[in-house]
Amino acid sequence: MKKVIxxxxxxxxxxxxxxxSMVSAAPAPTAHDYNxxxxxxxxxxxxGDQAEVQEFFAEFVKNIANPKEVExxxxxxxxxxxxxxxxLAGLSQYKEVKVVEAKVEKLYTVADYGAFTNYxxxxxxxxxxxxxxxxxxxxxxxIGLAKLGKETTDWKLWGLVWQDTGIDVSDVKLFQLEKPxxxxxxxxxxxxxxxxxxxxxxxxxxxxxxxxxxxxxxxxYNERLFHRVINDFMIQIGGKEETPEExxxxxxxxxxxxxxxxxxxFRGAISMGNEGPNSNTNHFFIVQSxxxxxxxxxxxxxPLNAEAKYQEIGGRAYLDNRHTVFGQVFEGMEAVDKIAxxxxxxxxxxxxxxMRILKIEFVKYx
Length: 366
What we know:
By secondary structure, the chain is an alpha+beta fold. Helices cover 18% and strands 28% of the residues.
């Protein structure tokens, strides 16, 4: 599940939201254009700054269902006040909101204001919105705040710096990690390190699977070395560089990517090597990483159960939607680990007795 950032008191928030009809009209004429303020100094936000802004968002979200209370959080003189109120009305599409992250991204002072009214902040507001049709939408908005007084409670929301359109992060069926059904065709790769068994997904990546199967059946991969091996990352194999076979495919040249929302670069995933978009040939790799970098998960908008699975079994989330996943190892990861553990040079080429694919077969699972 998404890690819910602790807001001020280390409590996650889940609140019902107001309907669009509950948002009141702007109570006073707007005058000040915060977008055109002149910056004087910029600061690295310290713990106190972050705590104040986190407290602002905690109280803001807590009171968002009460139009009279939420008005207290808005800068009364902002020229963009109407847009902010429209933003609040837009939140009413959700049954509830859970705050994932709220923090200061930029902190600065501006000219023509006093010492207690010249602080400004651009705050990151990342949340999950639960819709009435049971979808979960992840959004990250950047909100302009102004401190217009001495107290912590004097932070006010003056406008939207950038508003996300949202990405659906509802759970998906992780069939990729299921065992094959009896009678299902599986792929058996025999290597110097042992046997690797995997499932292929022709319904999701038809060209990648067809290319791999037909090249395998004519012996293209037999006796080839795993020429790029990076422990705790992946093992890769394919045609030799600077030879016609480097880019050999059954389609007569490179073919397009086949991305979808159902396949991920979990540990054990089989994926196409490439040199950029739509440059797939015969190179493929097996993800070997037993861990996942949480930073990449935080930067990715993944289905919530896929993120949880990455945390459980490992993988490389940043490869999703960059490389085509077309299969998954279900037996023989110890062989993959053994291949990955070879001593290599700086390019990942094994230094001695590089391990090979001996043969590839396609059989019925029993």
